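To: structure desk
From: M.T.
Subject: fold request, one chain
Message: Could you run this one when you get a chance? Sequence is below, nothing fancy, just the single chain.
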Amino acid sequence: MRLIRATFPVVEQGRTEIHLPHWQGVEQQHGFVHGGVVGMIADSAAGYAAMTMVPATDSVLTVEFKLNLMAPADGEKLIARGQVVRPGRTLIVTKADVFAIKDGKETLCGLMQQTIMVMHGKVEK
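Reply: Done. Structure tokens follow.
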């Protein structure tokens, strides 16, 4: 997240937010935030939401996600809101909504559903 200048202002049980400022290093050829970066913050926001649901002795790993890019990621910043949909012992289902913030208005630009695998007994690096 440091690489793309993202921050984590919200980390709660089953829910997180990642905020990403729009800067030239994350743009694609039309000046929007690149879809790969939208996917990156969606995956991370939902993955960290899942992480809040497991013991400190365990970790999580994304096994699949589906991302719909709904609109150009055009704004001063992006906010990815990750949320646990269904916690489980082995699999956790999550979702993330990514919003572009422009002139104070939120526009949904990405919608993701994800499956997370709980890695029992394997701590994060």
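Reply (cont.): The chain has a mean pLDDT of 97. Let me know if you need anything else for the meeting.
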